[in-house]
Write a structure and sequence with these properties.
It is a single chain. The N and C termini lie close together (11 Å). The chain has 9 helices and 12 strands. The protein has helices spanning 33-42, 44-48, 65-68, 71-82, 93-106, 119-124, 196-201, 203-209, 221-227; strands spanning 3-6, 17-22, 25-29, 55-59, 86-90, 114-118, 131-136, 148-154, 157-161, 180-185, 212-218, 234-235. By secondary structure, it is α/β, with parallel strands linked by helices. The protein has a 6-stranded mixed β-sheet. Strands 7-8-9-10-11-12 form a 6-stranded mixed β-sheet.
Length: 239
């Protein structure tokens, strides 16, 4: 299943970032600074579960800095130190263009050192065995049309990774018995994140569906865990 390098929200000390190994590949779900830091200090092989990582694949949900703040650094380090190629998977053509501008023009990543593709293209080729769907969602108005989550298959398990979202509605059709749902959760009631009280109110829905729910991207972690302590919800364990 997913290994989490951090589970905090945007203003936390360590942002939300996850990964899993697939053969000699390490798949990153977003790439915040904590992901770069831990990969640099602990090595990608630790998280991939193999002797030698031959490719990093960074799957991006959206372009907020707490989700892509470590991406360029990871590409630079992978090139200069590890000699590992990096593939960036963007959820749409528009986000692909935004990321390519960020990486190449603003941060000076040579296009020889990374490949950037859309999720649609990736699902038809290298990712067809594990990336099942890219799911449009709503987060902040400034990024309307540019925020997404993913439906994955990991270890023969149906997995939903919400990214940042204001609602779980876009993901409900992808749930089936045995699904593992990784959802963001906020202690504050706002128009851009999922309020913990609303999530608690959905517990019976997920139980009836046979869905296991893990909490990630938490802002006030202690408050969220206190409100969910009598539920089946669990915080994502840190790797």
């Amino acid at each position: 299943m997913l290994k989490f390098l951090g589970r905090g929200a945007g203003f936390s000390d360590e942002h939300n970032g996850a990964c899993f190994g697939l053969g000699n590949k390490l798949i990153l779900m977003d790439c915040p600074l904590v992901t770069f830091k831990r990969l640099k200090n602990e090595g990608p092989e630790k998280f991939a579960g193999c002797d030698k990582v031959e490719e990093l694949v960074a799957v991006i949900t959206h372009t907020h800095s707490d989700h892509v703040g470590g991406l360029a650094l990871t590409i630079h380090f992978a090139n200069f130190v590890w000699n590992i190629p990096v593939t960036v998977v963007a959820p749409s053509e528009e986000v692909q263009e935004n990321l390519d501008y960020l990486l190449n023009v603003l941060d000076g990543c040579s296009k020889e050192n990374y490949k950037i593709v859309t999720a649609e293209e990736y699902m038809k080729n290298a990712g067809k065995s594990w990336m099942k769907a890219v799911i449009p969602t709503k987060h902040v108005p400034a990024l309307d049309g540019r925020c997404f989550g993913y439906n994955l298959e990991i270890d023969k398990t149906n997995v939903i990774y919400t990214g940042d979202t204001r609602s779980l509605d876009p993901y409900l059709d992808y749930l089936s018995p045995g699904t593992v749902l990784y959802t963001e959760c906020s202690a504050y009631k706002t128009e851009v994140h999922i309020y913990v009280d609303d999530l608690v109110a959905m517990e019976s829905y997920f139980k009836n569906k046979g869905v296991t729910v893990y909490l990630m991207h938490m802002d006030e972690e202690c408050e969220i865990l206190e409100k969910t302590k009598d539920t089946a919800y669990q915080p994502v364990p840190l790797a």
